[in-house]
Amino acid sequence: MKKQTYSLVLRQKREADNLVKHCKMCGKVTVFTDTTIRRHNANGKNIYQFAIYKCPKNHSWNNKLDIYKSFSEHVNPKTLIPTEFETITETEKITLHGIEEQQVIEFKVTVVDGSFRLDQALASHLHGLSRTEIAQKINNGSILLNNCLSKPSQKLYIHDIILIKVK
């Protein structure tokens, strides 16, 4: 059985947006602008990601974006960044047509910037498969997440491994 391995980079597109909200420091309702700067805060086993917003008087407000799980065991840094794999970015797609049967496609998630569902991420990176077809393959076990059955709505995290069995 042959295996092709790719490194998957998942980034959400960021645009500076504005929110109208009460500024505690100014004492009035004002416009907060997204600085597109993100900060992380660790608390026990969770890592929180925040977006930093600023009002016109430069007061800041932090909007919680996501919660990640931290590592419970020591991880060798050399295993974190695969350099021998082809990296697939946001605009690239892999086609499954023409690939031999009994072959396995492996995606190693190396960067996750934002929140991504398994079925949506695969639909945006696989050519020729709809999201419904991908969800069916996840449900019947043709697509595994970390060598386990999962739901199509499962969130992806850094260091996840997605296996696609081509039949």
UniProtKB/TrEMBL annotation:
InterPro entries: S4_RNA-bd_sf. One of its GO terms (molecular function) is RNA binding. Gene3D superfamilies: RNA-binding S4 domain. Keywords: RNA-binding. The keyword RNA-binding applies. This is Cytoplasmic protein.
